[in-house]
Amino acid sequence: MNDVRTRRQRLIADLLRSRAVASQEALLAALREEGFSTTQATISRDLDQLGAVKLRRDGVTSYALPDEVSVANAPERRLRSILAEWVRSVEPVGQLVVIRTPPGSAHLVGVALDQSRLPEVAGTICGDDTIFIAARSPEEAQSLAKRLQG
Q1: Is the pTM of this model over 0.70?
Q2: Mean pLDDT per segment of 10 residues, for the chain of length 150 residues?
Q3: Separation CA 109–CA 130 (nearest Å)
Q4: Which of 37, 42, 64, 82 sits at a 20 to 30 Å CA gap from 124?
């Protein structure tokens, strides 16, 4: 019986690492597809034993394992901190977002933006005190500007 639990928990960990699993019901369905017959209560215990937590990534709430939690949020936390300290203004212009920084600071902000891998961002160009962010659409540029200002 212990072997079944170990294999099931290993599969749960693999599933959580490979896709966004938003609910225990979704996890139960994925396990059944892989041939495991189990209950929601068992999955709840497995998630607890694995230390899985729910967190929001890229606008989606899903389960994550402890080793992914600090890594997943680190670029976002760093970006928020850098934006608060180094950004003077954020302005959407068509499909672009223009960010102004103090002289010599654009690269610092640009690297943080690139490392955060925001889904709306197609690319960035940094000058000395200005960053141009190419968004995937004008609507995403508006949304991104609001997100960066907040």
Answers
A1: no
A2: 86 90 94 93 91 76 75 68 90 97 86 86 93 96 92
A3: 10
A4: 64
